[in-house]
What we know:
By secondary structure, this protein is mainly β.
Amino acid sequence: xxxxxxxxxxxGELYGIDMDAVHEVVKVKEVVTLPDSxxxxxxxxxxxxxxxxxxxxxxxxxxxxxxxxxxxxLIILNVNEKQVGLIVDxxxxxxxxxxxxxxxxxxxxxxxxxxxxxxxxxxxxxKLSLVAPDKVVGDINYRDYSLVSVS
Length: 151
């Protein structure tokens, strides 16, 4: 099966996510942080009246240097009727990828980066790490955010 993959960059490395899970891509607006938020969530945005939890993938993948947030992009995922925003450095392209071009994760590879991945592929000679949207959304307890208000 052929899939469309949204390719993005974090810390000079390429990542991709299945287009079926992407609701939209927007420039980062102000991210509101809340005291006592769990580690899984870095803050919230209000997008057309909907409060969306945000994960900074730079931090999740162990990249600590942050450029000015005005340079970052937000990929809004919609998985199982739940939304989450992923802060990434830049969105590169949308590419086609066949299932047989995806190399699954090996059980020995378990790091902070692989927790959210489903496999690897190759994009013009460069490694492309493929993000598993369900693992990203599954890491968030949405019940805790039902009363959050972001203005």
